[in-house]
Amino acid sequence: MTTSVARAPSPLFSSSARHHRSSAILKSTVLVPPWKRRNLLLSAAALLLACQNSVAAIPPFDPVTNRERSASAALSQRVEDAVRFLDLARDLQAKGDYPRALDYFTLVVRDYKEFAFSDYARVGRALVLYEIGDRDEAIAEMEDVSISLKGYPEIHAALAAALYFDKHAALLAENQFTIAILLDPHYTDLSYVRENKHWPPSLVDSLQHFITLS
């Protein structure tokens, strides 16, 4: 009985066939005509340039709107103006020009009251009012500011002097002065309030009466 055995394909033949197929594929992909390669390169360059121009044309993102930027600039200008007027008022107070100092302190209190530091203008206004204006109005201003600026030693010391000398309220004056000197002991020194804080003469005199209990 004869048994037929299938022969495996010849390795040489198989390798040769594979070589021919690979050569054919390589030729079909690599051998691109020069004019076609040039067109492909030009098309790619044009596409890249178009993408770059498109990206460059997109404006950068800005989270702040023009309206917000204008409002911020206007607010900064108002703060700058208020501080300038407050400094001018204090300078006039230091020079003893109390009527003009009162004008600028009042300007800050009236036109810039939305700012917290306008309370410091109220302190200055109360001091110069005490010198040249109605002392009752000055003391009322001091009492009001002593609440909004509670813990600010100057207003407590000034209120103590005025309450003692003008209102003859010794106990209230003592309470206010205790707060002042706990925060800043300098207010027991008349030269300090006169030369450093630029208190007007009448208020310095009232403080002297309080300190000496005269």
Could you give the topology of this structure?
Layout: H1 11-30, H2 34-57, H3 66-94, H4 98-111, H5 118-132, H6 135-148, H7 153-167, H8 170-183, H9 190-196, H10 201-212
Helix pairs in contact: 3-4, 3-5, 4-5, 5-6, 6-7, 7-8, 7-10
Summarize the structure.
This protein has helices at residues 11-30, 34-57, 66-94, 98-111, 118-132, 135-148, 153-167, 170-183, 190-196, 201-212. It has 214 residues and is mainly α. It starts with 10 loop residues before the first helix and ends with a helix.
Average pLDDT, rounded to a whole number, is 83
CATH topology of the domain at 72-212: Serine Threonine Protein Phosphatase 5, Tetratricopeptide repeat
CATH superfamily of the domain at 72-212: Tetratricopeptide repeat domain
General form:
rod-shaped
Q: How many helices does DSSP assign? A: 10
Look at the structure and give the CATH class of the domain at 72-212. Mainly Alpha
First and last CA, distance? 150 Å
Q: What is the CATH architecture assignment of the domain at 72-212?
A: Alpha Horseshoe
Residue fraction in strands: under 5%
| Radius of gyration from CA coordinates | 44 Å
Overview of this structure, please?
The chain has 214 residues and is mostly helical. It has a domain at 72-212: Tetratricopeptide repeat domain (Serine Threonine Protein Phosphatase 5, Tetratricopeptide repeat, Alpha Horseshoe), CATH 1.25.40. The protein is built from ten helices and no strands. The termini are far apart.
Main attributes?
214 residues, TPR-like_helical_dom_sf, Tetratricopeptide repeat protein, mainly alpha, Serine Threonine Protein Phosphatase 5, Tetratricopeptide repeat
